[in-house]
Design a protein that fits this description.
Length: 169
């Protein structure tokens, strides 16, 4: 949210938590709109300055974790934002959550965390090997649960496709 008095407020909407606030200009904001060229906002103030405001995707999550100590459960909010928007900077949180769910035997939950992790952080050969090494305990094999959970909502990447096709071939 940008006010006409030159302040920017960034909220996490689902929890109504103020993540960041800053005065961006001393002059009144005349008009503001979404940037057409890239994510962010473009503003024009009464002095005629054109301001472009954007969030640095690579530093946003580390900022919340390290500098937003005023927020209760700032790490949880950072993890949820990183998961929802595939933002970088929460790699350790994704790995910790994935390993925690694996240890609890929640293979479908672990697959959902892997799906939401940015890039190939968890969707790689190491994860597949880890799942293949877990013995089945009365139900389907963990690797099958992993693949079926991923296939419910997304496509498999190259490594996962090869691993799934390997037993068939």
């Amino acid at each position: 949210m940008i006010t006409k008095f030159g302040y920017i407020y960034i909220y996490e909407v689902s929890n109504s938590v103020l993540l960041y606030r800053q005065r961006i200009t001393d002059s009144l904001i005349f008009v503001a709109t979404k940037s057409l060229n890239e994510d962010g906002t473009v503003c024009v103030n009464k002095a005629g300055q054109v301001l472009q405001i954007a969030i640095d995707d690579n530093n946003f999550i580390p900022f919340i974790i390290n500098h937003a100590k005023h927020i209760p459960d700032n790490v949880g909010i950072a993890f949820n934002l990183a998961q929802r928007f595939s933002l970088r900077g929460a790699d350790d949180l994704f790995a910790t959550q994935f390993n925690k769910l694996l240890a609890m035997g929640d293979y479908a939950g672990a697959a959902r965390v892997a799906k939401d992790a940015p890039g190939t952080l968890l969707r790689n050969q190491e994860t597949i090997n880890k799942l293949k090494s877990i013995p089945a305990t009365g139900g389907p094999q963990p690797i099958i649960v992993y693949f079926s959970t991923l296939l419910e909502t997304t496509k498999l990447n190259e490594i996962e496709t090869i691993e799934l096709a390997r037993p068939v071939l």
